[in-house]
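#struct-pred

JT: dropping the chains for the assembly here, can someone run the whole complex?
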Amino acid sequence: MNIFFNSNNMEFHLQNDKISYIIKVLGTGDLGHLYFGKRLNHRENFSNMLQIFEHQVPYTPEQIDGVSGFALDTLKQEFPAFGTGDYREPAYVILQENGSRVTDYKFSKYEIFNRKPSLKGLPQTYVENDDEAKTLQITLKDKHLNSEIILSYTIYKNYPIITRNSNIINNGSSPLTLERFLSFNMDIPQKNYEFMHLSGAWARERHVVTTPINQNRISIDSKRGASSSNNNPFIALKEIGADEFKGEYIGVNLVYSGNFLAQVEKDHYDNIRINMGINPFNFSWILEKDETFEAPEVVMCYSDSGLNALSQNYHKFYQNNLIRGEWKHKARPILINNWEATYFDFDEDKIVQIAIKAKELGVELFVLDDGWFGTRNGDTSGLGDWWSNLSKLPSGVEGLSKKIDEMGMKFGLWFEPEMVNPDTDLYRQHPEWALSIPNRKPTLSRNQLTLDLGRAEVRDYLYEKLSKILRESKISYIKWDMNRNMTDVWSGVLEGKRQGETAHRYILGVYDLMERLTTEFPHILFESCAGGGNRFDAGMLYYMPQIWTSDDTDAVERLKIQYGTSIIYPISSMGAHVSAVPNHQTGRITSIDTRANVAFFGAFGYELDLNHITDDEANSVKRQIEFFKENRELLQFGTFHRIESPFENGFQNVSWIMVNKDQSEAILGVYRIHSIPNPGFDKAFAAGLNPDFKYKIEHEDILGEIFYGDELMYSGIKFRKIGIDTHDSKNLENLGDYSSKIIKITKI
Ligand code: DGJ
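RK: done, full complex below.
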């Protein structure tokens, strides 16, 4: 890993074993982008990569008087502005006192150092030892405004990853209004790329979508106040023809949980501009003298060997360099959550009965979900009144948590701190604490309003209430929920001209509260949640090592959701539960084994009343728990390879595999969506094994027992042909719709 600086021609080359990133300071002081991709040998001069014409650019503003060819509109840039000749989407827009938005930030200085500098008040990736990363900081200055922009680039020893962020400082005497200040920009020369992102909705989160890029702009965003189920703050450029195992991908993921914008724009010379950051829509930020504004970080990852490799690098990087605290590398407990078992309809006795049965079958942690506080008997009241509902729980959370603890199980609790129901003591005392506009009726969603976490007194109230419960009870897990998107974004503590700051200040407030609570209670395992997966992002993972992936617990739908989520986020971070059938979101019936076979690839748990299953199913649950305990390290922290995608080939089959570090053990999951009569010969393929290792498979449906890794990966695993004889009704469950197999592969 190195950062070279060629002072003769002002070029920076960030390089490690896998990637190179090259920047050039142009004669005009503009910052040109030269290259990002597979590692290049270092040379003293990369100026040939510049895109400057040797003739006048037709009908295009040129930057230097009398010198033809230097047009910002055709130049590949690092952090472009609008107004001086570049007509593409800019990285920033700054409104000045005279009403102009034209700026002139030019190269001023640079610094190269070991380590990664930290961001203030924002989630961020980090290194444990300074020699794991090197950082380049380039300062641009607008002399007229007396303001600086600092662009940070960090390269890592062990990953094909560059993290970037940008800061702006106002040293001038007049305030500056940021109307847009994105985290990063990169202009990539012509290449056959497609645009990939993860789109969805509640219960259909993070489906993989690929779109052709023509001469136009494709943008995804969130205006919801949360990163959202609709579009994850991640985009990738995918080389046409690339797939899980081959081809080039450039991924960019924003470490942020609020409104964002991510876009690509192909210009008239086929250059692709890609940029991302806080959504400029409904955003503005006034920067007074001596103030700094810091944009969130982006994590750029490169792969020239397919999407699996891109994801595996994101997974490892996030496990080692984003997630923090005691639970970072610790195997997660098998939990049972009462939400789908009881919804709001429970009392202490019902809860204890669910816990007793779960304990008997081997579950390790009981999680009490929504409904334990205030007057919360439905979703119309209670949020904000964070004390036990004694009519449901006579000995309170304190007493219940002790009972569960005495049973030999850990106890976890649900909160939704960011919200308030109008029908609460809190709202009656402090209606001004909710986001709402004076003299207008605020819009409710799930009968609740959003508290203004930009206000310090709101955060203090929540901190005091939550920490009191955490201190008094025996709590080892918290599910932190957030169940509505923002409307009526207006804060009572900001003057009119500053209202564009409200949504970002809210997110900074959420981060502040999370930081305080996770610091004071380091032993607690925190799981983030937002109406399922409405805030599944790298920002949240910095505070909480796992996130509830989706409210959709249907095993078949979960194949898509978990597959899509795994494009960026580690398997250990995805909450995945076995729930009752018919499934509460789709009405679909799947076997208890298939439900577990999908949920095994996540932070595994149950979300049903185990008293209401058959004895056969209870035996299966017992076996599932034993299997998961034996293989937990591998399943949560191994290397994940996706094999057959639910987004291709008509969603017939899905498969994926988890392989341990030394490739001595693997678990393959194979899922059949639609069965067909009189099928051909069925095969599954492994991935990620050592081709030269000998492996053993003991599975009644598989022909043979001992294989080399190469055969399992390249020739495939052949299943016994079962069920084609109309007189043979044995093994039908292995054949039908939604059947699945878990295959353990062990080196001998
Ligand atoms: C939404 C969550 O995603 C569910 O798991 C559950 O906790 C409910 N909220 C409770 O209101």
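JT: nice. The first strand starts at residue 2 and ends at 6. The chain is about 20% helix and 30% strand.
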